Amino acid sequence: xxxxxxxxxxxxxxxxxxxxxxxxxxxxxQEIADPLQHDGGVWYSIxxxxxxxxxxxxxxxxxxxxxxxxxxxxxxxxxxxxxLVAISFNQxxxxxxxxxxxxxxxxxxxxxxxxxxxxLTHDATINTYxxxxxxxxxxxxxKDKKISIWEVxxxxxxxTLSTKYDVSNVNVNxxxxxxxxxxxxxxxxxxxxxxxxxxxxxxxxSSGELPxxxxxxxxxxxxxxxxYGNKDNSLTVYDTENDKIAYITNEHNGWVDxxxxxxxxxxxxxLCKDSQVRAFDA
Length: 282
Fold this sequence. Notes:
This protein is mainly β. It is built from no helices and 27 strands.
């Protein structure tokens, strides 16, 4: 499950298997609107860059788009035949992108009902993707243990790099100069390794192994911090620039299931099995 923080860092949206997304004031911890009601469990939510919209993704493979101002639904839920990996907005907030595990990449114009498919190919299931902030590159990773860089303008594969384990998550930093890659191992999808590469040439800048008891992990938008939750209920923040642990917190009463940084990397929120959402200074 993936929560998201608004770009002005005042609101956090938390999806839930109870078929809702709830909007919270980060400073007060109070709900600021009625829950956004869906017809299936919700596992992904994201704000548009201009904060006018929230897109959500359900376990029914439905894409919903909501008004962030009043919680009104803006589109008829769009159900996909194939399992969706994730969704994201472009910088203007007028287009939405979605990717399926089969490698179909869809661009949705939110002003029209049309979708333009772009086909990305891997030798196995696509697990994750991200789009550079300038809209020039799509980065995908899959169970074929490969990272691929695609040029959006001419739909050409620019570069491919092999990894040791399955690629579980890719994140472009806010400057579009760095790419953080997480790898996972085994049927439990255990986070195992992180690496930072230059973008788009995929030159290795730094890397490290995650502890064997890691449950979930996430990188800050600036690419300088990695936070990961452990099965002993602790959470570690790692400084990738100085190659050291920044701090460890033991304030959770259960496993951390999700981590999300604010756009400026100054704070992050955690979703915990104790049903609490917590905010931390990074």
